[in-house]
Design goal:
It comes from Blastococcus aggregatus. By secondary structure, the protein is of the alpha/beta class. The protein is built from twelve helices and twelve strands. Bound molecules: NADPH dihydro-nicotinamide-adenine-dinucleotide phosphate and N-acetyl-L-glutamyl 5-phosphate.
């Protein structure tokens, strides 16, 4: 099926135009970087807020082919006319713009506005009115790929929820762990966005690792609960502690939960091998190898490893993602591929850039 679609597109030469708003930020910049290598999606316009009117080359010097594009405003009128619009804006800025875009435009939101299905959870964690939920852009979740095929509105997951969901969903779906999970995840500073913040100054971050959002207060907690409860088919509790580490990009999530009665290392390995056998962007590493953020740098890939801590009776799963690639920009294009009927892997990097 995929091969037939691919050869049809190659023969017709069809391409789609993409407008990226938030293109001067980290997530939008990553979408632009990946578009440069996509055979059927072409970057047709870049948009942002305070930097409208400036050359993209001044703000994103690595995007060499696009240096002369002039940044346009982010309002809906400026974004009309593209086949695909990627919104990479701060939380709360996407919904009003998206509501004014044509229904047949593929709109991919990298922000949180449309991720949560429960309006009460949205109000509690984000503090304003829920804009409604869109199909959730994690095709690897059971049943999700079908919802994304042909969709015209897609909510890209948060970066921590991507790593944690892919780390734990197979064990929960197979009933191998108790539905009470503990997650400690390390993130590079690009996860916090590009706008200046004192705690992200080099002198604060370099040479130090710090925890933040401790005690169940990080807004990715409800997103993880939503995903993991969907995978398990029962409510799952999540204790999540993020940490900031002195690197630019990458997330390493260490997840654990008590083993269910009868579960062991063999059944856990078998469940993960089965769940991810056909997933192009999820790599269960050979036994004994542990994920690193460098091995997925710039790749639309999650690297996973599992172990059983016999003495503690717990399953441990470690996942590495690049927060800007599989954690946002790559996921956005993976979803766009599905929405447009392209092979899901089209134009996306499967390998990292580690030395
Ligand atoms: N960074 C990451 O690892 C991840 C980010 N995301 C999500 O992607 C989105 C963007 O994040 P990120 O790139 O890190 O953020 P940045 O701060 O790096 O970039 C924000 C972008 O949004 C624009 N912008 C700011 N305010 C407004 C506004 N009021 N109206 C329209 N545009 C505005 C900025 O334009 P200008 O510079 O012109 O002001 C800039 O282009 C967020 O929703 C974030 O949660 C999701 C997963 C991972
Ligand atoms: C290091 C750091 O600050 N990370 C961000 C994660 C942001 C992200 O990627 O997720 P959203 O798309 O939901 O914003 C944080 O903890 O809020």
């Amino acid at each position: 099926m995929h091969c037939r679609v691919w050869s049809c597109i190659v023969s017709t030469g069809q391409t789609w135009t993409v407008g990226v708003t938030g293109a001067t930020g980290y997530a939008g910049g990553e979408v632009c970087r990946l578009l440069a290598a996509h055979p059927f999606l072409s970057l047709a316009g870049v948009h942002a807020n305070s930097s409208a009117g400036r050359r993209l080359g001044e703000l994103q010097p690595h995007l060499l082919p696009y240096a002369d594009l002039v940044v346009q405003p982010s309002d809906a009128a400026s974004l009309a006319g593209y086949d695909v619009v990627v919104l990479a804006l701060p939380h709360g800025e996407s919904a009003a713009i998206a509501a004014q875009l044509p229904e047949d435009t593929v709109v991919i939101d990298c922000g949180a506005d449309h991720r949560l299905t429960d309006p009460a959870a949205w109000a509690r964690w984000y503090g304003n009115e829920h804009a409604g939920s869109w199909p959730y852009g994690l095709p690897e979740l059971p049943g999700q790929r079908e919802k994304l095929a042909g969709a015209r509105r897609i909510a890209v997951p948060g970066c921590y929820p991507t790593s944690v969901t892919l780390a734990l969903a197979p064990a929960l779906a197979a009933g191998l762990i108790e539905p009470e999970v503990v997650v400690v995840a390390a993130s590079g500073t690009s996860g916090a966005g590009k706008s200046a913040k004192p705690h992200l100054l080099g002198s604060e971050v370099m040479g130090s690792v710090s925890a933040y959002g401790v005690g169940g207060v990080h807004r990715h907690t409800p997103e993880m609960i939503q995903n993991l409860s969907q995978a398990a088919g029962i409510p799952v509790s999540v204790s999540f502690t993020p940490t900031l580490v002195p690197m630019s990009r990458g997330i390493l999530a260490t997840c654990s939960a008590k083993l269910a009665p009868g579960a062991d290392a063999g059944s856990a390995r078998a469940a993960y091998e089965k769940a991810y056998a056909d997933e192009p962007f999820v790599h269960l590493l050979p036994e004994g190898q542990w994920p690193t953020t460098s091995q997925v740098l710039g790749a639309n890939t999650v690297a996973l490893q599992i172990a059983v801590d016999q003495a503690a009776g717990r399953l441990i799963v470690v996942a590495a993602v690049d927060n800007l690639t599989k954690g946002t920009g790559g996921a956005a294009l993976q979803c766009a591929n599905l929405a447009l009927g392209l092979p899901e892997t089209t134009g996306l990097p499967l390998v990292g850039v580690a030395p």
